[in-house]
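Entry for NDP complex. Fields follow.
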Amino acid sequence: MKPLSGKVAIVTGASAPRGIGSAIVRRLADDGASVIATDMRGSLQIGGETHHRTELLHALSAELLETGSTVMPLNLDVADDDDIRMCIAAAVTEFGRVDILVNNAGSLAGSDNFLSTMPDQWETSFRVNILGPMMLSQAVIPEMRKVGGGRIINIGSTGSLGAEPGFGAYTVMKHGLVGMTKTIAAEFGVDGILCNIVCPGYIMTDMHAAANERLAKQAAVGVDEIRKQRYATVAVRDAGQPEDVAEAVSYLAGPSSAYVTGICLPVSGGVPFGI
Ligand code: NDP
């Protein structure tokens, strides 16, 4: 039997084919979970082409159906409480339970030098990186209690553990997500609900490529130079892959981590956390 057979997972921000979210969906499905793969409505730019997120989610679901997995695509803006209510209702109607929540959706809004960041960027960053995980966690905890426990896994960043210049609001919110993780771990361990945060370093996704391009523009150098500079600080001298993060999530969702809660697990190849 697979380690997550009979379990039901919700993963946010999962439409990008080379994103961390879709890698997590694939991994949890492979572990035997039924997965609700969610993302916002609207479109996504990949390599200069426009893709509809809903279509990407349906393609992911169809791909995994062929391997015998159950993946339900669903539109979910993590900052919209109506969407959250509908998501939980869909999970309960379709599968009868919720066991695992992965708060993966994240926003780089307000990632800039501190003096350049604007209040509306901070608000966007707060809504996606803090308010969304908070509202979703509040919505799933009663469902997890009904089935005797669950796992909430937040996706932070090495920017949750230290600061480097140029990431303003993002660093602040990702630090806040550590506090939320520990708060949930402290309050709901008694209900069998474990909460941990995975902190990726440089992971080769479209979001990471966009950050490299922005830093290159700011420094008026090429993207290759920025990559060289950033990866020179990584112990293993390279960026990681979305599957590396998915592996850590699989561990924290599965039976091997039954006595682990409130931890920050960096998946960073040994990147220094800054100050
Ligand atoms: P992606 O941009 O591919 O994934 C994040 C997804 O969340 C995007 O589809 C994004 O949409 C979506 N999103 C934004 N706002 C909302 C919302 N309101 N509701 C639902 N979804 C939303 O990035 P990654 O795969 O790189 O990142 C996944 C997670 O990993 C994020 O939390 C990120 O902060 C974290 N991380 C990534 C690192 C990396 O190197 N890639 C390093 C450290 C942490 P949109 O594209 O429109 O913003």
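NOTE: The radius of gyration is 18 Å.
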